[in-house]
Amino acid sequence: MKASELRELNIDELKRRAQELRRELMLTRFAKVNQQLKNPLKLRHLRREIARILTIVREKGEK
Fold first, then answer.
1. Can you say whether residue 61 is alpha, beta or left, with left for phi > 0 and alpha for psi between -120 and 50 degrees?
2. Domains defined for the chain, CATH in brackets
3. What is the pTM of this model?
4. Is 35 left (phi over 0), alpha (psi -120 to 50) or beta?
């Protein structure tokens, strides 16, 4: 999701999306350990998406 699309969401939706991405990141890490991960760049994408969401939440004024 682009940052402009994320800025349209409210804080609760952003936090929910970040939680979903964290869960997906955890499962992706397990797949990497088990050597079942087909796209290793997915880890980087998930980490950056989470950081992008948290930055926008902080911009909106809530931790």
1. left
2. 3-59 (1.10.287)
3. 0.87
4. left
pLDDT tens over the chain, length 63 residues: 788 899 999 999 999 999 999 999 999 999 999 999 899 999 999 999 999 999 999 999 865
- Whether 57 contacts 6, CB under 8 Å: no
Distance between CA 55 and CA 6 in Å, rounded? 10
Question: What span, in angstroms and rounded, lies between the C-alpha atoms of 63 and 11?
Answer: 10
DSSP string for 12-39: HHHHHHHHHHHHHHHHHHHHHHTT--S-
